[in-house]
From TrEMBL:
<keyword id="KW-0028">Amino-acid biosynthesis</keyword>
<dbReference type="InterPro" id="IPR031322">
    <property type="entry name" value="Shikimate/glucono_kinase"/>
</dbReference>
<keyword id="KW-0418">Kinase</keyword>
<dbReference type="InterPro" id="IPR027417">
    <property type="entry name" value="P-loop_NTPase"/>
</dbReference>
<feature type="binding site">
    <location>
        <position position="122"/>
    </location>
    <ligand>
        <name>ATP</name>
    </ligand>
</feature>
<comment type="similarity">
    <text>Belongs to the shikimate kinase family.</text>
</comment>
<keyword id="KW-0479">Metal-binding</keyword>
<comment type="function">
    <text>Catalyzes the specific phosphorylation of the 3-hydroxyl group of shikimic acid using ATP as a cosubstrate.</text>
</comment>
<dbReference type="Pfam" id="PF01202">
    <property type="entry name" value="SKI"/>
</dbReference>
<keyword id="KW-0067">ATP-binding</keyword>
<feature type="binding site">
    <location>
        <position position="81"/>
    </location>
    <ligand>
        <name>substrate</name>
    </ligand>
</feature>
<keyword id="KW-0547">Nucleotide-binding</keyword>
<feature type="binding site">
    <location>
        <begin position="12"/>
        <end position="17"/>
    </location>
    <ligand>
        <name>ATP</name>
    </ligand>
</feature>
<feature type="binding site">
    <location>
        <position position="58"/>
    </location>
    <ligand>
        <name>substrate</name>
    </ligand>
</feature>
<comment type="subunit">
    <text>Monomer.</text>
</comment>
<keyword id="KW-0808">Transferase</keyword>
<dbReference type="InterPro" id="IPR000623">
    <property type="entry name" value="Shikimate_kinase/TSH1"/>
</dbReference>
Amino acid sequence: MKKNIILIGFMGVGKGTTARAFAKKYEVYNIDTDDLIESKENKEVKKIFEKKGEAYFRKLEQKTADWIIDSVQGTLISCGGGFYKVKNLHKMGTVVLLDASFDWILNRLKTAKNSESKLAKRPLFSQEAEAKKLYDEREKAYKKVADVIVNVEGKSLEEIVKEIAKKCRVQ
Ligand SMILES: Nc1ncnc2c1ncn2[C@@H]1O[C@H](COP(=O)(O)OP(=O)(O)OP(=O)(O)O)[C@@H](O)[C@H]1O
Ligand SMILES: O=C(O)C1=C[C@@H](O)[C@@H](O)[C@H](O)C1
């Protein structure tokens, strides 16, 4: 796999989990843009939002995109929920949207084992009504920017991973 695969989608849809499973099955590396930013800043995303604000975080996302374009190949890259807004997204690789309805995402997050700690890390998901508003604003934009769309509702992790590979022609 030479071209990167760029996983986008709303918070909690399963980008990180899917990226790890894909990387294992197809023996590629996977990285996550939130993790890259946290290690570069030596601060959690939540703290960056609190201390420096969202605009600063978005600049870090753009820097990360520029670095990926210059330096990363053949890698599965899972992205923060707002990362799709960077310029040159398509230069990074094949853009794959993991898609699901807001209610489905919320329901799975609420029933997941690590749900409380997951939600606590995501400042934009701290209020359900606000998160729904953000989802509604983004839904069309995600679909517009995606090269490939994979609906994840009711599918196993294995099915999702295989569908991504098939649609991106990875063997
Ligand atoms: N295919 C799946 N089957 C079962 N549970 C899953 C699957 N994908 C994700 N999950 C669970 O759903 C929750 C959210 O998944 P994950 O952290 O991968 O989402 P994310 O899109 O990376 O979120 P964020 O962008 O907020 O980091 C986790 O509790 C995870 O264990
Ligand atoms: O949807 C968003 O805008 C965000 C999602 C998270 O992955 C983090 O990147 C951050 O909390 C912002």
